[in-house]
Amino acid sequence: MMTRVRIAPPDDSTADISGDNTTDTTADAASTDWDESETGPDWQSENEIPDTLPDDLPVDTAWEDVYQSAPAPAARNDDENDHDFETRNSPAETLRDHLEWQLNLTPLSERDQAIAHALMDAVDERGYLTSSLDEIYAGLTDETDEDPLEMDEVEAVLRRLQYFDPPGVFARDLQDCLLIQLNQMPPDTPWLAQARLVITHYINLLGNRDYAQLLRRSRLKEEQLRDVLALITSLNPRPGDIIDRTEPDYVIPDVIVRKHNGRWRVELNPEIAPRIRVNASYASLIKRADSSADNTYLRDQLQEAKWFIKSLQSRNETLLKVATRIVEYQQGFLDYGEEAMKPLILSDIAQIVEMHESTISRVTTQKYMHTPRGIFELKYFFSSHVSTDEGGECSSTAIRAMIKKLIAAETPKKPLSDSKIAAMLGEQGINVARRTVAKYREAMHIPPSNERKRLV
Question: CA-to-CA distance for 87 and 91, rounded, in angstroms?
């Protein structure tokens, strides 16, 4: 059975894909169904320049004389947006700005202010001190001529700064950071004393997840330790991350995939395919019978504009064609998820659309597809394959999804090792080595089994 693929023309910017699973590898002329009746941007009518141009218009006019700038947008009287005028393009607040603001509100002597700034200079983006108190003290004493500075003064200022927001800043290490946050909690907080005990004396056992030793040494029951760990895990080991430091980077998808009447429909995002036209006033200045320098210049510029518009059309057609073939090949992913992803390489698409592999690589780089399952780079749909016992192939993306699913369903007290996961995949007919499982697991930022062990 042949798959019917209809790639819409530039004036439609859409393509429909049938639900068949086979692929027609014939030329595009055989697999493309142009439909002028479809709705969409009218590329043809807006981008083409009429061949017949008026001859009775003057041509001895400079380009700048007929240029008219776009009218300025009308002023908005929307009061609700006035408050955003100053902050719309302002840089994001950094942790240092947040600490400086609090320091300016804290009554300190000039001597303590100098100590506070020295301590603040040593704080990194996480909120931790990157220098020891001895080093900070040595740097301050070198600048002091009279009335020598005492270490007690530095420690006193540090204790005061450790009450700044966010809780846990100015800590010397992780243990100090967690204790600072515990000390700021109300005294009647449940399990507060036990949490301090565990952090103060047994933080290494907690880091190694050696719960057997932790239960024995802390003399806590398993249910009690579970409540203590719940309190500890509510703390923030990186308090500086609470303060936003960077603006969010939004991705605008290049193509949009929707399911309409049981068929996947691919269309260009209008935001990345704007309607571009040549200004009719400029085009009308060209006089075919005139060979003056001005007219020749205008004619050259008009031709370059035509080429530019044609290049944009070609780029959009290629992008739509490649995205359509990808969606056609990966319908299983759209219907069932990552575990149904098929192996796909650039050469497979290049052969179908009859383009060079390097062209496919450029088209799929930094181009994004919006699907019901999320926004993905087109490169995401390409993956290597692993042979199965039945002689078939399974994509690496599908294997990653299987590993993630197995780990999500594991018993927290006895997490699955990489060898066990490889054996479980082998039972499903997928032959992967333990080191391959470890590589995929690390690529998904999943810690090893000893670090995933939990009491609950």
Answer: 8
